[in-house]
Specification:
Layout lengths: L1 H23 L25 E4 L1 E5 L2 E10 L4 E5 L4 E6 L6 E2 L4 E6 L1 H32 L5 H27 L4 H4 L11 E5 L4 E6 L6 E2 L6 E6 L3 E9 L11 E6 L7 E8 L9 E9 L10 E7 L4 E7 L4 E3 L2 E9 L2 E11 L4 E6 L6 E5 L1 H10 L1
Helix pairs in contact: 2-3
Length: 381
């Protein structure tokens, strides 16, 4: 009995000593799970990023020039009145399509009355001088008139012809039909009403006149602007370094913000001969058809010109490249949700694609969307 009691006491003491020894030992540190700074292994949610395999793709090299839509140089006209008067009728409204020769407005002008009176006077003087010269010639032939009198009659005729021509030119400048002035005076039908006509076929894009308004002969007082909107131009700037890549008749494409993803065919019409000293650029003009009237003058536009044959390049989306301290990097997929930052050398080939010059090889998988998020996670790590 006494032996059994001793065994229980020794067993109880052993348990107590074992418990004390365990509580006195310091806890071992937990294994570290931090990723290496060179390999960020924690990625954003997989739905926020996209990856793709790098491969060679045929790329059409292009030159992108910034400019704006404009009227064709010979396809619009700012129309002002050639004489003073009062507007009695306006026949064209803003937005109307007019034909060349169509009447835009009617002006009642005293200038026409005064010019026609002068024309009639000079016509009479010319008729009188012509008869006087013929009579003087006959009298001189019969020795009934001195030579100096014949010369005087001839000089008077020359002056009369000059004055008549001047009066006629004045009427022609007031747009009086030449055919009307060729008729005999008794048959001529010329009034003080002047019809101002459109010099070209197009659309009235500006109207700055109303009935009853007084107008002058000042060319700066524009009454109408008529433009052919079926064919417009793009005026763009090209830098000196790219000038050799642009040729007259070169085919290109026009893009505007109003119609994203839509290309409008164009052809280079002319290349400027003067360099802008401030921007160091040269003006390039390209024709673009606008039969559907979608393009509007003064729209900002990009002129894209193909500058070589399509060549296979190692290309990736521009969004896949991040810039850090002036260098370019992409993120290579090493394992699911593990990305390694890789420095690359790139060059632009289009507005949304870049060519890889160094740093990647075909077949590697990289982050093409969400690279900025991976970069941010790397900084946090």
């Amino acid at each position: 009995m006494i032996g059994t009691t001793r065994c229980l006491l020794w067993f109880t003491c052993g348990l107590l000593l074992s418990a004390c020894s365990q509580t006195q030992e310091p806890a071992a540190p937990a294994p570290s799970t931090a990723a290496s700074p060179a390999q960020p292994d924690t990625a954003p949610a997989s739905g926020q990023i996209e990856t793709a395999v790098v491969s060679y793709k045929p790329v059409q090299p292009e030159l992108v020039l910034v400019g704006k839509i404009a009227y064709g140089e010979d396809r619009y006209s700012k129309i002002s009145s050639p004489l003073q008067g009062r507007v009695v009728e306006v026949r064209a409204k803003l937005g109307d399509r007019v034909q060349a020769g169509a009447t835009l407005l009617v002006i009642d002008s005293p200038d026409i009355t005064a010019a026609y009176s002068e024309f009639v006077k000079e016509a009479s003087e010319l008729e009188y001088s012509t008869r006087a010269q013929e009579l003087a010639k006959e009298l001189y032939a019969t020795k009934a008139l001195a030579l100096k009198d014949l010369k005087q009659a001839e000089n008077d005729l020359i002056k009369a012809r000059a004055e008549f021509r001047r009066a006629k030119e004045r009427l022609l400048s007031l747009r009086i039909p030449a055919a009307e002035l060729e008729k005999p005076l008794a048959q001529q039908r010329i009034t003080s009403r002047f019809e101002m006509k459109s010099p070209l076929t197009g659309t009235v894009v500006e109207r700055m006149v109303t009935p009853g308004q007084s107008v002058g002969s000042d060319a700066s007082q524009v009454l109408f602007t008529v433009a052919d909107l079926d064919r417009l131009q793009v005026v763009a700037d090209v830098y000196e370094r790219d000038l050799a890549l642009v040729k007259v008749s070169q085919v290109g494409r026009i893009n505007v913000e109003a119609y994203p993803g839509t290309d409008f065919a164009s052809v280079v019409a002319s290349i400027g001969d003067v360099v802008d000293p401030n921007t160091r650029t040269i003006k390039v003009r390209a024709w673009v058809d606008n039969q559907d009237q979608r393009l509007k003058p003064e729209m900002f536009a990009r002129l894209r010109l193909d500058i070589g044959d399509a060549t296979p390049f190692l290309t990736i989306p521009k969004e896949a490249v991040v810039e850090i301290d002036g260098k370019h990097f992409v993120y290579v997929v090493e394992a699911p949700d593990r990305y390694a930052k890789r420095e690359v050398m790139v060059s632009n080939v289009s507005s949304d694609q870049v060519r890889i010059l160094e740093g990647l090889t075909s077949g590697q998988r990289i982050v093409i969307k969400g690279a900025v998020l991976v970069k941010g996670q790397e900084v946090k790590g």
